[in-house]
Amino acid sequence: MGDDQPIPPAPQSENNANNDAAHPDSNAVPEMKVPPSHASYKITCEKKRDKWDIAKLVAELIGLGFLIAYTLYTAGIYCANRKAAEAAKSAADTAHDALVLSNRPWIKIKHHIVTPLTFGFQGAAGPAAVMTVEDTLENIGNGVALNVLHWEDVIPEDSDLSTRTARKRREEWCNANKRFDPKSSIALNGSVLFPHDPSIQESRMGPLMSTIQKAVEANAVSPILSQGPKPNPLAGKVAFVLIGCVVYRSPLDIDGTRPYMTTFLYHLTEPREYGMNFPWVTPKGTANKLQLMELPDGSSAY
Which 8-state DSSP code applies to residue 8? Predict the structure, then answer.
């Protein structure tokens, strides 16, 4: 071709193809991902949170159930152990009591008048009535009796024919001597009494004449002893009782205590015919007819 010959135009289809390749279609709508709305997101989150809360609540309830079951189980074990401990203690106490009872001492005492009641004896505290009694103490139990101590006295009978004053005096002395200080150098710790080995000793006792005179005066005006307008046949007379106790302990008992006691109470009376007894005497000279008569409710041992 010559230079003057015009160049034919390129085909339209080829130009369009090249143009489309170089420049994409500007009229095409781009694809966009729209995020969910806030309300939809909130609903989804709340659903997930509700499920978590329910699961958490169920787990807590299960844990609480296990805790309650464990607590009840532990309480049951504690109660069972406590009952077992109490049963063991009760069995031990019963065995100890049985051992003490089978090996404890038992002291009995017998009395015999050596010197009859004599009035007007001049003692350190003043004129008194004095009587000497032989006491035979015997341990008839299986164990040794320790810290054995005994007391007795002659006391006027009350004007109402009771022994209330004498019993009160015995209670005071015996209860006061159920405890003692084993380390004291002045306390009466008592003696030892072996089983079936009697101990014989003499005791001298009696009330002051001033005490006897008060009893005589009370008897003179006693409505029980007086006989109305007639003269009182017991005026100037008085009756007496011999009262006392023995206190002691066993080797199994606490030192400083005397938990065991034997008590006694006798009427001093003159036996008469037909089985009668006459306890009243005039407080002068020597009442050599008086004998010991044990009262049914006057003795005890424990």
Answer: P
* Residue type at position 83: K
Helix (H, G, I), strand (E, B) or coil at 216: helix
**Residue 157 class from Cβ within 10 Å (0-12 exposed, 13-18 middle, 19+ buried)?**
buried
Neighbours of 125 (CB within 10 A): 8
Return all residues near 262 (Cβ < 8 A) that are at least 6 apart: 107, 108, 109, 245, 246, 299, 300, 301
Instruction: Specify the pairing of strand 145-156 against strand 191-193.
Output: antiparallel
- Render pLDDT for 94-145 as a digit per residue (tens, 0 to 9): 887 788 788 899 999 999 999 999 999 998 889 999 999 999 999 999 999 9
- CA-based nearest residue to 300, from 196, 167, 172: 167
Structural element, H or E, at residue 81: helix 38-103
